Amino acid sequence: MIETIDRSEGKVLGFRVVGDVTKEDYAVLGPAVQAAVDEYGSIHLILDMTDFKWEKAEAWGADLHFGHEYHNRIEKMALVGHQSWGKYLAKLAEPFYATEIEWFTDEAAAWSWVEA
Asked: Containing domain of residue 110, as a range?
C-alpha cells in the first residue's frame, strides 16, 4: 500500500510504503506526482519504506513506467527505512528514478534534506 504523508506540501511530496506494493498502488503515487510536476515542473520526493515488505511482480511494469516518466522531474528522492539493504537500493535506483537519491534511517533527517 502507498499512502500520502500529511506533511506533503508544494513541490515536496511524501508517501508511506507499507507491506507489499501492487500495481494499483501506483494509482495513488502517479497522479499526485503528476499534479505536482504540472504545477512546479520538478519535485522532491520522500518514500518512507520502514514498513515496506516487497513489490509484487504485477507492479514491476508500473514501477518502471513511473521511473521512466518522472526520472528527470524528481530532483531529490529520500528513501527512509531501517533495512540494511536500503543504502544499496538508493544507489541502484538513482539512475532510474531521480537526479539524486539518498537513504536515511531517520525520517526527520530525510524531510530536512528534501525540504532544503
From this structure: 2-115
